Amino acid sequence: xxxxxxxxxxxxxxxxxxxxxxxxxxxxxxxxxxxxxxxxxxxxxxxxxxxxxxxxxxxxxxxxxxxxxxxxxxxxxxxxxxxxxxxxxxx
Amino acid sequence: xxxxxxxxxxxxxxxxxxxxxxxxxxxxxxxxxxxxxxxxxxxxxxxxxxxxxxxxxxxxxxxxxxxxxxxxxxxxxxxxxxxxxxxxxxxxxxxxxxxxxxxxxxxxxxxxxxxxxxxxxxxxxxxxxxxxxxxxxxxxxxxxxxxxxxxxxxxxxxxxxxxxxxxxxxxxxxxxxxxxxxxxxxxxxxxxxxxxxxxxxxxxxxxxxxxxxxxxxxxxxxxxxxxxxxxxxxxxxxxxxxxxxxxxxxxxxxxxxxxxxxxxxxx
Lengths: 91, 267
Prior knowledge:
The structure holds 2 protein chains of 2 kinds.
Chain A: H1 5-8, H2 13-30, H3 34-48, E1 52-54, E2 60-67, E3 73-80, E4 83-86
Antiparallel strand pairs in A: 1-4, 2-3
Chain B: E1 3-8, H1 16-29, E2 34-38, H2 46-49, H3 60-64, H4 70-73, E3 75-76, E4 83-86, H5 99-110, E5 115-119, H6 126-133, E6 137-142, H7 146-161, E7 166-174, H8 176-181, H9 187-193, E8 197-203, H10 206-214, H11 225-237, H12 253-266
Parallel strand pairs in B: 1-5, 1-6, 2-4, 2-5, 6-7, 7-8
Antiparallel strand pairs in B: 3-4
């Protein structure tokens, strides 16, 4: 929120640049190819479906950035796995 | 003790060659015997920036292939005592030289020179590998743009993975008016992102174009801001304690007020 932005006619594109760069570098540094991510996704799915029935269409696995407490960004593996129902008979 | 320093960036057009020419020239003005080596085989430009393009007889590939001795290929810059250029070949490509051969050349140059500056080609392929092969230290050049900083990060990663662990950053072509407007990343923004120490900052300066037009390094221009920045940067490189140049950061009252508001509103 820049108070002066509205009547100063000033943009703040450098913040956009910085944010884009930070996300970009999280990906670059993690060096995760789409192929590797796909492989990972499949294996995670295989393991989890031993225990729960998952909605495969709603599955989403991606590398994102996450803020640590000291405000530095670290790469994080984010998996959103919708569960249809639990398998009760697994032992 | 001589030092081999490679000037690299990943991205093209950020000012590697200009930086090599200016640091090298000022090192020789400070009394150091300095060799500039252009490793951009096929796209040589250091000779033109230095204004020595009409004096090339032999080049780097000729030396590697044994067509001439290293000393025959070195062009002496008559304007600056102790400054020499080893030009790249223009009609060959990067595969004409390999890293072992480059290391042999830099080792031979170490015997005669205090500083050997290697101008690296853009990219991360063979040309880059050749350029860093014999280097003790790397200077990574970037501009305050997303693409250039991204490539600098990649280069820093590759340098870490190779034997060149000693590296420093040069931020080139910073425009203070744009930084003040919030339309260009400032030094802190870039340093937040890259895991590297800062050697210096060069302001965007029209005089660079003029000096390149003439083939005279800007570092000899007493009046230009970029020339001063290159002199300071070079002094820091050789261990002198010089503060970062003041790039016209004379904020007015309005700017100070604005910063105050920005800080309080972001909390």
